[in-house]
């Protein structure tokens, strides 16, 4: 039980670290991503570099959640648990591609040469980052959230109220990302924001439960129909 409790806390911390680093990194990236002529400027690019470092921590945290949870969730569906690990690895890999694209803007800054060519390359790199942002924290995280929510709901390791957030948020952000991909609406929109918020709430609610309380004990697992679940 002590080992399982530690596993829950570590997994919860990984979820929190991933969320915090993602938000801070995106804010630090804005000077480079929001202006294609960023590459024509001069001066410090420390904020963008720090953002890249934080996103490396984010990618590592994504992998950390899956590796930490795998020994627990595989008991309730080994194939699905392995799929969750592979999905988190893919999510991290996509994030890293976005990091490389964004940090390449720093390398181009002040490199000299034709300004129009530099701006064109910068726009291409920003487009790469935007697509990785849609695919990693969008399409892939939607599948990952659904896989984990199904496993936790089936095993009753956490309260159903929490797993329902994942069961709803995963498909929602997946469908939203596909809609954005085909131009139904913009990524920065009310509908795009809604899917992201539900998944964020799911992950933070799960993280809080894991850190504060941990998993339910095996005795609190599947219960007879009609019997209320413990908190």
Summarize the entry for a quick read.
The protein is mainly α and 231 residues long. It has six helices and no strands.
Structure, explained:
This protein is an all-alpha fold. It has one domain (2-218). Helices cover 77% and strands 0% of the residues. The protein is built from six helices and no strands. Helix 1 (2-33) runs antiparallel to helix 2, helix 2 runs antiparallel to helix 3 (78-108) and helix 4 runs antiparallel to helix 5 (160-181). The radius of gyration is 20 Å and the shape is elongated. Residues 219-231 have low confidence and may be disordered.
Report the C-alpha radius of gyration, rounded: 20 Å
Shape, per Cα inertia axes: elongated
Number of strands: 0
Through-space gap between termini? 18 Å
What helical percentage do the residues reach? over 70%
Helix/strand order, N-terminal first: HHHHHH
**What is the typical, i.e. mean, pLDDT?**
89
Catalogue the unreliable spans. Answer: 219-231
Count of individual helical segments: 6
Our count of domains comes out at 1
Structural class, judged by helices and strands?
Answer: mainly alpha
Give the biggest sheet.
Answer: none
Topology readout:
Blueprint: H1 2-33, H2 46-73, H3 78-108, H4 115-155, H5 160-181, H6 190-212
Helix pairs in contact: 1-2, 1-6, 2-3, 3-4, 4-5, 5-6
